[in-house]
Amino acid sequence: MANVLLSAKGITIRFGGVVAADGIDLDVYEGESLAIIGPNGAGKTTFLNISTGYLKPQAGSVSFLGRDITAQLPRTITKLGIARAFQIPQLFLDQTVIENMLIAAASLKGRPSGIAALSSLPEVAEMQRLLELVGIEEFAGRRARELSEGQRKLVDIALALALKPRLLLMDEPTSGVASSEKFDIMDILIGALAKEKVTSVFVEHDMDVVERYADRVAVWSMGKIQKLGAPAQVLTDAKVREHVIGI
Questions:
Q1: 97-111 b/e (C-beta count within 10 Å ≥ 16 → b)
Q2: What does the radius of gyration of the chain's CA atoms come to, in whole angstroms?
Q3: Exposed end of the chain (fewer CB within 10 Å): N or C?
Q4: For the CA atoms of 236, 239, 243, 246, what is the dihedral angle to 10 degrees?
């Protein structure tokens, strides 16, 4: 049986009268790709925020590799091996792609570096390798604002991989991506994670993407996991189809 990387036990958090998590129990297994689906406001992104230290639950705990990380800061959790990719890529739009990568590398090592000095950093080759891994090495010298949304998503994934994570949490990786590009983007993304041996959890509204790329699916609704299992089992469930997918 695969090792448990992340384990949430009894996670509870409320925002006023809205219950975003109501006693959530969820294990994430090493090597899997877990999709979280559900209606807007169901608590999906809240779970990612709790798992990465951006929110603290009012009850319950989260552990990573057996270590309690519930009260840890985001920077500490990142260093432990959990990376995050946001719905909107967090890039310096006026800097080139490779400069974005090297700024992240310099920050990770705790050594501030001016833009002019980035090209002399020892991580240059590794950052170029990661851009090749996600298939965008040809854009290394382009400013981030010149890239398409799909290309920016791939840069964001490369930035996350630069942190050397064991687990990557992604919020809607195909959001804003043209429908004609979404499978190409996901093929590259999932392939890169497999090569780097990174486990993934992703929030997604596109059921075609979920069906094609998830090993397991967790259905979030009213702060609870209503169903958890393989895509073929979950996505054909009558209640899920009616209340989540809208069929």
A1: bbbbbbbbbbeeeee
A2: 18
A3: N
A4: 40
Which tokens is 247 given?
Answer: 């069929």
Run of H or E including 239: helix 238-240
Q: Which helix (H) or strand (E) holds 49?
A: helix 44-51
Q: pLDDT tens digits, residue range 147-188?
A: 998 899 999 999 999 888 999 999 999 888 888 889 999 999
Q: Residue 164: which region, alpha, beta or left (left: phi > 0; alpha: psi -120 to 50)? A: left
Place of tokens 């093929």: 187
Instruction: Please state the pTM of the whole predicted model.
Output: 0.90
Per-residue pLDDT of 11-68, as tens digits, reads 999 998 888 899 999 999 999 999 999 988 788 999 999 999 999 999 999 999 999 9
Segment 95-138, tens digit of pLDDT: 999 989 888 777 776 665 666 667 767 788 999 999 999 999 99
Sheet holding 167-171, edge to edge: 82-85, 167-171, 199-203, 33-37, 216-221, 224-229
| Diameter over CA atoms, the chain | 58
The beta-carbon contacts of 104-107 under 8 Å, at least 24 apart in sequence, are: 104/159, 104/162, 104/163, 105/162
